[in-house]
Write a structure and sequence with these properties.
This protein has 21 helices and 5 strands. It is mainly alpha-helical. A 5-stranded mixed β-sheet has the order 2-1-3-5-4. It starts with 6 loop residues before the first helix and ends in a 5-residue tail after the last strand. 44% of the residues are buried.
């Protein structure tokens, strides 16, 4: 009698159960706002749920959002309608991420095993490593787009490949097009899936078959592009990067660099591509072994495993997965911001597929040379490669173990960081007018808790940092006063957790302190928390 479930499938169920408990246990509503992105999504979700449109209602001018596609905020807005009581509804929103994370693991299994990319045992290893990666845990218990995107994009990959092989009816091409279109409305790089479908269908000369899903998917893309064009920002404020499209941001980055250096556009684009390529290549082994940035110099070479394995399978047979990875990474090469490890998380299962294949190939080669090698030099090289392999496996095991433990503890760390603002939030609610505008690093967080409009205390121009590695104190000061002037700000809030994600975070802290000391008639301290880690300054007048 045939078994209903094989042993790998039983282990898969166990992995999913463990992952579910781990993600749910790691949920911490007090961590909301720490990474900024999640609070922007909730702000726009509230706007959609309360009939204000797709706007960033936390900013003074309530601009229309044209940067981030609307599907994720739209899903969050449904939760807001069910439970409009903030912040208690944060738990439901975070649990939505958990559901999408578990679904993405299931669809990865179906995709890898159902379409012959991996055996069940190898797929089980890939899913286990993906589920227990600390970056996955962080994204799965927060309010971020990665898990939603992963679930929808991999579903789209699976359906598109089945459709191309004629394993589902042509009528289902409509459904394929809808799923692919929704992928692009979850995250902008989702258009990579549309490019993949177009390229592979045309490569196999299935022009008519490609028509239905591509036409439907492009309806979603065109609608979003038209929305962005009609609502394009008409002014160039310091923080318009909040809501302008990525193409606008890219254009502004190029203009800034041209103004500073006089370089031609093509050279600037090459600089952007090279910078992002280095960032992505360095991040590949980090996400695969669950390491942090300090391991880049030690294990950056491990990206070779992925690249070589990818090329070998690509040479053997060109498939949807190959084209999707190339399109996805290609889009991030012209990303106006710095490409970093988080961008690779929707690709993690596939990177692990090639990473494991690369390790297996190198292991066989090392074994062959150590046992059958004809020269001492070959055996020494094989021994060296074997030591590297063992070190990678050890570091991977240690990092995964530390990552799980760290993720369980990080909720408390994030909670304590955000709770530093709790006293300031209470003071703002009790001692300021609803019309007062705040300048602070965690601006959407303050809006959500106080109802006061707020804008970020640093300019959102990370992508333009191509000329120098550091900004100057003069530039920081000019940007701050411009932010204050453009938003008619009334209060400046400084916390010990500010600027943690800036490359020049310490420079920002010291510069802001100097500015306050030098302009005491402008910045008057009106509140300080009991632990002295957060201060509020009333802005009396502008400094010329």
């Amino acid at each position: 009698m045939r078994k209903i479930f094989t042993l790998p499938e039983l282990y898969l169920a166990l992995v999913l159960v463990v992952a579910s408990f781990l993600y749910i246990y790691s949920i911490s509503p007090n961590s909301f706002g720490y990474y900024h992105d999640d609070s922007i999504y909730v702000v726009t979700a509230k706007a959609l749920a309360t009939g204000q449109g797709y706007r960033i209602i936390s900013l003074p001018n309530e601009p229309v959002q044209t940067k981030s596609p609307p599907l994720h905020p739209l899903l969050l807005s449904l939760i807001w309608r069910i439970n409009p009581d903030f912040p208690t509804n944060l738990v439901l929103m975070m649990n939505m991420s958990v559901l999408f994370a578990i679904f993405s693991l299931v669809i990865v299994w179906i995709y890898l095993t159902g379409l012959g990319y991996a055996t069940k045992w190898r797929a089980l290893i890939i899913i286990g490593l993906t589920a227990l990666n600390w970056r996955t845990i962080v994204l799965s218990c927060g309010i971020y787009t990665e898990m939603v995107y992963s679930a929808i994009s991999i579903t789209g990959l699976y359906l598109a490949e089945k459709y191309e092989k004629n394993e589902i009816s042509r009528f289902n091409g409509i459904f394929v097009g809808i799923v692919i279109g929704l992928t692009s409305l979850t995250r902008s790089p989702g258009i990579a899936l549309i490019g993949t479908v177009g390229a592979l269908f045309f490569y196999h000369k299935k022009f008519l078959q490609a028509g239905i899903p591509l036409i439907i998917a492009n309806i979603f893309i065109v609608s979003w592009v038209v929305w962005g064009y009609l609502n394009m920002p008409t002014f160039a404020g310091v923080n318009t990067a909040y809501f302008e499209s990525y193409l606008q941001t890219l254009g502004n980055v190029i203009d800034d660099v041209q103004h500073q250096t006089g370089y031609p556009v093509i050279l600037i684009l090459i600089k952007i591509v090279v910078k992002n390529a280095i960032g992505l290549l360095a991040a590949i082994p980090l996400v695969c072994i669950g390491a942090s940035k300090e391991y880049i110099m030690h294990f950056g070479f491990a990206a070779v495993f992925v690249i070589v394995s990818f090329c070998q399978t690509f040479k053997k047979e060109i498939r949807f997965l190959h084209f999707y990875i190339l399109f996805y990474l290609g889009l991030h090469l012209i990303w106006p911001y710095r490409a970093y490890d988080r961008f690779l998380m929707p690709l993690l299962p596939f990177l692990l597929l090639f990473f494991i294949q690369g390790i297996e190939t190198l292991t066989l080669l090392v074994h062959k040379e150590l046992t059958l090698g004809k020269t001492t030099l070959n055996k020494l090289i094989a021994f060296f490669l074997g030591v590297m392999l063992i070190s990678i496996l050890i570091v991977g095991f240690v990092n995964y173990s530390k990552g799980i433990g760290g993720s369980l503890r990080s909720s408390n760390k994030l909670s304590s960081s955000v709770l530093e603002d709790s006293e300031s939030i209470r003071w703002i609610k009790n001692h300021t007018e609803v019309s007062d505008v705040l300048v602070c690093y965690h601006d959407p967080l303050y809006f959500m808790y106080t109802g006061r409009k707020a804008t970020r205390s640093t300019p959102l121009k990370e992508g333009g940092n191509l000329v120098s590695t550091n900004v100057s104190e003069t530039e920081i000061g000019q940007a701050l006063f411009r932010i204050i002037r453009e938003n008619h700000a009334r209060y400046l809030i400084l916390s010990s957790t500010d600027f943690e994600f800036e490359n020049d975070g310490e420079l920002y802290r010291t510069t802001y302190r100097k500015l306050i000391e030098q302009n005491q008639e402008t910045f008057v301290r009106v509140f300080q928390t009991t632990d002295e880690r957060c201060e509020i300054y009333k802005i009396i007048e502008e400094t010329k």
